[in-house]
Specification:
The structure is a single chain. With about 300 residues, the chain is an alpha+beta fold. Strands 2, 3, 10, 11, 12 and 13 form a 6-stranded antiparallel β-sheet that branches. The protein is elongated, with a radius of gyration of 32 Å. The protein is about 35% helix and about 30% strand. The relative contact order is 0.10. The chain contains 6 helices and 15 strands. It starts with a helix and ends in an 11-residue tail after the last strand.
Length: about 300
Amino acid sequence: MTLLIYIPIFVIFPIIGIVLKTLLSTRWKINLFYDFDDFSKEKYEYLNNALFELSKSNKIWQINTSTLVLNKKYNAGAGENVTRCSTTLSEKVPFFIGHNIKMCLLNLRGEKMLFTPDRIIYFKGWTQVYGRNYKGMHINITSTNFIETEMVPKDATIIDHTWKYVNKDGSPDKRFNDNRRYPICKYGQLMFKTDDGINIHINFSNLSLSEKLNHFFIEFMKLENNQIKRNYVENEKNSQDGNEVLYDEIKKFVIDNQKVSVSILQRRFRLRYEDAAKLIDRLEKEKIIDSFNDNAQKDVLISNNTEAK
């Protein structure tokens, strides 16, 4: 105990960091391994092509806030005041994630977005990890005019110039000695939105990438929506198959026991009243039970030693 007191703080913290990193990369490791069919592979390739196309842009920014400007005269003529921070795209995923495919990581302010084949995984700090399906996601690519007050990226498109303090006619306000001339750049704009409140707003300097990005994202979402439809149809088919199995089981039960009612089916097969009533109707139509008997308990028309047709 006495020894620990004399261990310097700058030695303890690296040791704790090594222990945590070891736990994260071994016992707490998240494994993301995928085996693609042709459809899923094509869909994910479109997503990756879009993201790695975006990474070619010289500068990428996350837009953090945007507020309306009441007096444009003192804001270089801009209608909005925007705060932004630089962001990057990379193939380097967090060290505690095992994977067998190429994935793209978007590094945002205070969080990261990892694009996997079936969902986006969000990392907030070291404590929060949550996923969002691509279902319900809206991806929109447009362009925006931005008054650049920092160094202009090499691949930016300059469409005009303005002044830090500007008159209504666009000329510089000569009352200010430090009235700098600013370029107006046309940047690409990418927005990720989901129905549950995710709203990520990205600007990128290379406007010429927009057409390819738009194509790749459209094709990805088209295939994603087709997959949702395919899954729905498959689930419906499985549900129908399951209903047929249940109906065959109920028909055998009715013939074996020579009695049936809505309440009996509800108790025996744990059904809702509506579902049990529909099954009674089907048994009547197929002449398994008497359709002319108005009593709660129906007469069975097929004896238990006769094969049901």
